[in-house]
Sequence to fold (190 residues):
Amino acid sequence: MALPMRSLFTDPDRYLQSFRLFLANSTEHQCMQEFMERQLPSVIGSIGNGKSAINILSVGGGAGEIDLLILSKIQARYPGVTINNHVIEPSADQIFKYKEHVAATSNLENVKFTWHEETAYEYESRMSAEKKTKKWDFIHMIQMLYYVKDVSATIRYFHSLLEEQAKLLIILVSDKKAETRRSFTQGHKY
Fold:
């Protein structure tokens, strides 16, 4: 008799072990770094125009390596502007590593970090229960839509949180390329 498959969602240690194995055998981070260098500057080109603070929401921020690369590009585009960076990440271990990366990174004086140890669904539920609707200038969801039950509903919810001129960036691994980018501007239909 075959053993039932264990879900990566309910076993954080198994998820981290699987994710580390995936990274060791893929070019995912290299492809994302290339995207950040070549295409991200045009994506973020209007998110902070005329603003004294930029509000960013990282959904599934992991250990923060890619988030810190994104932040460096935003800081380069908008020097001296305050950046409020909120991170939704369900793994306490990943948040701990993210905080270590922040502590080891220079030039983050104008970036304020807030971590939320929760899933995207838990964040949405908490905001609904608290009757809060915070708007964001930039929301990114990198390699996280695999872990939600209703992809369309999740995208619709986070899209509804965009300010004017804001962007929603979604990156997923595809079978053709190591990355796929979908960027939504407030007001566009998908």
